[in-house]
């Protein structure tokens, strides 16, 4: 009777174990990793080193060794098991990394900081909170919360662009037109979209006109500067003279070598052939009488009057010097 019961128990035990073929996975490791927990398809099979029987097919081998409360070393590998063929696997453990619990605590702390920043109005933080709720990173996965934070981010961005558009920013006007066309961050409104497109076009035209006017003023100033330079040097040439070894310039005398008998070549600007045509043109413009100009109070007119006044003063000085 006892023998019959024993045989029955053995049959039950045999039936309770999976039917393994004669395939075997032998897991080995370095001495420092002895005691590493080994799992096959998520089932704990022992501590390294260990021999584990397996069925034919694909097997995920995962090994884990705790370093401390927050860090662990990991090894993972997929094995292709063939019936009747044994395999040997040498564990090469990873560098210490955060455990799943420690990683979640760290991400939760970061999510808390990001949440406070998002609530303070930071658009980038709002978008990050949306991604966290989508993926469940540091927070419980929640698609509704993710969508809510995306809406808040777009609404905040739209309000800031609206303020910029009202201040005259052309790019912001175009962005508002796009937002009203699609309803992104605002209530969809085709009429508002068209209005902002027209405002952007008007602002662009005004900007082009201002730029053209500014360029025209710049060119006029550059031209006036050239005329002033030519006028100055022409005046200088006329007021230099040489008498008995002295150069007379206004009331001043400069001692020169006795053989100096001509105008200073330094001031003969028209001697450069490549500049002759341009300088002659500028001299002609500078020589025009103020009465012939449409604007007698222009810069050129004032410069010419000043030139004539300076010329008269210089001539008087020369006469006084000659008299002495």
Fold and architecture overview:
- This protein is of the alpha+beta class and 324 residues long.
- Helices cover 53% and strands 18% of the residues.
- It is built from 8 helices and 11 strands.
- It is elongated and about 115 Å long.
Keywords:
single chain; 324 residues; alpha+beta; Immunoglobulin-like; Serine Threonine Protein Phosphatase 5, Tetratricopeptide repeat; 3 domains; five-stranded antiparallel sheet; 8 helices; 53% helix; 18% strand; elongated; disordered N terminus
Give the SSE map:
Blueprint: H1 2-16, E1 23-28, E2 37-40, E3 43-47, E4 50-54, E5 57-66, E6 71-81, E7 87-90, E8 97-98, H2 100-119, H3 123-135, H4 143-166, H5 170-182, H6 190-239, E9 240-243, E10 246-249, E11 252-255, H7 276-287, H8 299-323
Parallel strand pairs: 1-7
Antiparallel strand pairs: 1-4, 2-3, 2-5, 5-6, 6-8, 9-10, 10-11
């Amino acid at each position: 009777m006892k023998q019959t019961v024993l045989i029955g128990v053995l049959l039950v035990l045999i039936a309770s174990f999976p039917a393994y073929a004669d395939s075997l996975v032998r897991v080995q490791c370095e001495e420092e990793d002895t005691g590493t927990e080994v799992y096959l398809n998520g089932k704990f099979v022992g501590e390294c080193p260990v021999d584990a029987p397996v069925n034919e097919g694909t097997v995920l081998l995962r090994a884990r060794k705790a370093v401390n409360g927050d860090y662990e070393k990991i090894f993972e590998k997929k094995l292709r098991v063939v019936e009747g063929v044994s395999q040997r696997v040498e564990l090469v453990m990873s560098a210490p990394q955060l455990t799943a619990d420690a990683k979640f605590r760290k991400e939760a702390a970061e999510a808390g900081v990001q949440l406070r920043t998002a609530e303070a109005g930071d658009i980038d933080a709002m978008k990050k909170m949306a991604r966290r709720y989508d993926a469940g990173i540091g927070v419980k996965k929640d698609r509704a919360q993710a969508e809510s934070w995306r809406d808040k981010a777009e609404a905040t961005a739209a309000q800031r662009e609206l303020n910029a558009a009202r201040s005259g920013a052309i790019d912001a006007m175009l962005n508002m037109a796009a937002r009203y066309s699609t309803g992104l961050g605002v209530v969809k409104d085709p009429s508002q979209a068209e209005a902002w497109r027209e405002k952007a076009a008007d602002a662009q035209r005004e900007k082009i006109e201002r730029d053209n006017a500014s360029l025209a003023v710049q060119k006029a100033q550059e031209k006036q500067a050239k005329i002033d330079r030519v006028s100055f040097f022409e005046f200088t040439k006329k007021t230099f003279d040489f008498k008995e070894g002295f150069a007379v310039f206004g009331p001043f005398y400069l001692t020169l070598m006795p053989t100096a008998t001509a105008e200073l070549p330094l001031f003969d600007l028209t001697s450069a052939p490549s500049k002759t045509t341009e300088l002659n043109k500028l001299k002609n413009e500078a020589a025009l009488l103020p009465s012939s100009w449409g604007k007698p109070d222009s810069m050129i007119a004032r410069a010419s009057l000043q030139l004539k006044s300076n010329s008269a003063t210089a001539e008087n000085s020369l006469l006084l010097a000659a008299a002495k």
